[in-house]
């Protein structure tokens, strides 16, 4: 008997597979996970890869020579973008069909299929990954609309714009494919958080985390 679920990699008790709903998506996600992130208990990127058949997750820091990633990037049937908020990034909604064409800036000519790269790690680790992975530097950069609030109830000191990777993925997919319902991703996330809160000794959640919810 394995101690861990072979699907999600979590212990059988904490297995998240029961909350996963398989979702079709035309837009594909590539998650680049910092090698320091993969053993964190939450690991929300897992919800994306389990729910979305055409999403992949690669682990590392410098992806410049990553064969699988580079062969995906070489596929000319796709336009690739990277979520990397900065001065030069465009809002995801400018790519959507209903988006403002002026701000679209021809980022997705000839309506190719879309792949979006998400960097999974703290801001500092994501910065490092982007810096050393030279093959990502040519890609158009994207950011999410301002003011989206995360629901990371058990992260200490949450700030308004700290979205988990699964939430970022949810927003990207929902903006680009508004006709589709991706809320099962958030439901799975919420169930996972609730599970971890339930595991905490009585009072721990209230003492350490509850306050931040009402702020
Ligand atoms: Zn599982």
UniProtKB/TrEMBL annotation:
Which keywords are on file for this protein?
Answer: S-adenosyl-L-methionine, Transferase, tRNA processing
The record's Gene Ontology biological-process terms are: tRNA processing
- Does the entry feature the keyword Cell cycle, yes or no? no
Domain spans labelled DTW: 1-201
Q: Write out the GO MF terms.
A: tRNA-uridine aminocarboxypropyltransferase activity
The protein's Enzyme Commission number: 2.5.1.25
Q: Which family does it belong to?
A: Belongs to the TDD superfamily. DTWD2 family.
- The entry's protein name is tRNA-uridine aminocarboxypropyltransferase
Origin organism is Vibrio amylolyticus
The lineage, from the top, is: Bacteria, Pseudomonadati, Pseudomonadota, Gammaproteobacteria, Vibrionales
């Amino acid at each position: 008997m394995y101690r861990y679920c072979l699907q999600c990699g979590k212990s059988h008790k904490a297995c998240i597979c029961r909350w996963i709903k398989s979702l079709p998506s035309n837009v594909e996600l590539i998650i680049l996970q910092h090698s320091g992130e993969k053993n964190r208990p939450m690991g929300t990127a897992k919800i994306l890869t389990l729910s979305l058949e055409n999403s992949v997750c690669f682990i590392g820091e410098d992806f410049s020579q990553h064969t699988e990633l580079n062969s995906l990037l070489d596929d000319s049937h796709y336009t690739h973008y990277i979520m990397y908020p900065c001065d030069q990034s465009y809002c995801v909604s400018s790519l959507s069909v209903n988006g403002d064409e002026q701000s679209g800036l021809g980022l997705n000519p000839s309506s190719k299929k879309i792949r979006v790269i998400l960097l999974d790690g703290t801001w500092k680790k994501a910065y490092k990954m982007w810096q050393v992975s030279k093959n990502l530097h040519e890609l158009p950069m994207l950011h999410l609309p301002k003011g989206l609030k995360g629901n990371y109830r058990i992260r200490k000191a949450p700030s308004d714009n700290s979205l988990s990777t699964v939430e970022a993925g949810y927003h990207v997919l929902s903006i680009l494919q508004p006709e589709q319902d991706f809320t099962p991703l958030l439901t799975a996330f919420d169930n996972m958080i609730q599970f971890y809160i339930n595991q905490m000794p009585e009072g721990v959640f209230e003492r350490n985390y509850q306050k931040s919810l009402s702020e």
